[in-house]
């Protein structure tokens, strides 16, 4: 008889970012008022599940998303550097203008890697390791890992045996969404997706990183 384990990848909630910057791994970016409401909704939605482990990216927006869930479940949040946002050369720049500056083009020569940031294969490596570790620890139960859009989407692409390079506009990974990996023993059997806080998303859904 195999043992079923579920690892939920929770994307952080909405961030206060009035300048519209690509903040990446920069410190000092916290949840907006709507983001805090999103985190509360997700905590309520997941509080009745058999979750025995909660790990989180070290970045403030992820930690603040995890906090209500930790309170609801009575768990301690464990910080895992492997869940952090992807590196990006364009950190600190306005997302609406960074592709209009000629000097930035030298970083865009290879979208398959990608040449402007952390290689997709490296994101897969660290995310897979984090999932494998928590899957072993939470065996027979459920776990939540709080991370960011690109790491979550990239490991999902890898799990579903799809190419890693992609159009960012087509990612199915909205703010405060949950991507769930279900394992029978060590074998991945399904990938699910839900948006517990979908009613709070501002059009277009999935704003921010």
Automatic annotation (TrEMBL):
GO terms of molecular function: phosphatase activity
A GO CC term attached to the entry: cytoplasm
Pfam families: His_Phos_1 (PF00300)
Family annotation (SMART domains): PGAM
Coiled-coil intervals: none
Alphabetized InterPro entries for the sequence: His_Pase_superF_clade-1, His_PPase_superfam, PGM_Phosphatase
Cross-referenced PANTHER family: BROAD-SPECIFICITY PHOSPHATASE YOR283W-RELATED, PHOSPHOGLYCERATE MUTASE
Name of the protein: Broad specificity phosphatase PhoE
Organism: Sphaerisporangium rubeum
